[in-house]
Amino acid sequence: MTPPSMGVTCAAATHPGLVRTVNEDSWLTLPPVFLVADGMGGHESGDLASRGVVDVFRGLAAREWLDSEDVVRTINHAAAEVAMLRGHGRAPGSTVSGVALSRRDGEPCWLVFNVGDSRTYLLRDAVLTQVSVDHSAAAQFAGAPRNIITRALGAGIEQPEADQWLIPARQGDVVVICSDGLSNEVSSETITATVRLTDDLQEAANRLVQFALDAGGRDNVTVVLVRCEFASGATSGTMDRRTLPPRGDGRIEYGERR
User: Fold this and answer.
1) Where is the composition biased (Basic and acidic residues) (predicted)?
2) Residue 141 confidence (pLDDT) above 60
3) Could you tell me the residue range of the domain that residue 93 belongs to?
């Protein structure tokens, strides 16, 4: 039996927020990979760091799908590129969180990956689940500051350790990828309702960013939405989590839907 052909619809929106003047977030919606990278505030060249991460992942655009080794290799390459940006200040760094189109036994899957405190969620059957795990002091220690992250690309960390999860894709799945400028300002309930009740993904992304601004916009905010659309049939399954060894202006900017 021929596996179903998986297609995706995607959208993205970003804004520097109402406090910061520089947007240190970057994003990519270029199949087979979709991601958000958040340059680390307080470090030198945070915006360049996140762009560097995106530029490295852009090199995967010719691929139909990726496996875990592809992701590890690319994350290590990105970390090395970020490390080369170092000047006289604190070492530049960036988070990265996202999803790649993948396969297991021929079946289409989401391959979620994460380093840092940007997040990747899966909206399935009206339930929003945070797939990624925050690599932050606040996630590990009660009362710790939220702005301290424990894993990053660059930031003086030689070998970033990425988490990965392989999730069989289902018709109608929506992957939500965001920087903490969204997740710190907008509740999971609001994210769920907005994506569920807005048919157009670009409109949903725009609304989510606006909600973050309405809540104070204290940080850069970026969101990427990716929806699964099978040509025929559907797949189902449960999450398979794997932790990889260390290797390696006042307006919303709109992403291009592909």
Assistant:
1) 239-258
2) no
3) 6-230
